[in-house]
Amino acid sequence: MRTYLLALIMICFAVHSNAQKANKLIMRNGSIRFVSDATLERIEAKSSKLNGLLMLADKTFAFTVENTSFNGFNGSLQQEHFNENYLESERFPRCNFTGKIVENINFYVDGKYEVRAKGKLNIHGVEKDRIIKVSIEVKNGKINVYSKFNVLLEEHGIFIPTIVNQKISEEIQIIVQANFEHYE
Prior knowledge:
2 helices; 17% helix; Lipocalin; disordered N terminus; alpha+beta
C-alpha cells in the first residue's frame, strides 16, 4: 500500500510539473526593429536577440533586449551615438516591456487574435504605462506575436540636439516579431 501511495504521489507531481511547464513559454532570439524616419534621414536598426516569457494561465508576459545588440545603422558612427549618446547603453543596458494581455484568448486553439498588451515599457531607464495592440497567431502549438507601435523619445528622457533634429525623428516606430515555441 505504501509503494502504491508513493507511486501515486510521484505521478501527480509529474503531471502537475508538466502542466506548469506547458503554461510557461519562452522565446529566445525574437526580432525587434526600430525606424527613425526624419526629414533628412531614415535610420533603421534591428536586433535578433529579443527574449521573452509568456505565462499562458494568467496572460502575463515579459520582453527584454540588450541595447548593444542592435545593428544595421547607416554607419558605425550612428551605432556608436545610439549606444553612447541616446540610449546610454552602459547605464541602461536593456529595454523591457512587462505586463498582461487584456483580452481573453485561448492559447490552445489555433487562430488569429487581435489583442491589447497593457504594461510597463522601460526605455533609457524611464518606465511608462503603455497599451499596445498585438496580433497573436496560435498554430500547431506555437504562438507567434507581431506588433508595431510608436515611441516618443522625449517620454523616455531621450532628447535630440537641435543640430541633428532633422536627421533623427522624435517619434520612433518599433516592430516586434516573436515566436514562442520553447517550453521551459
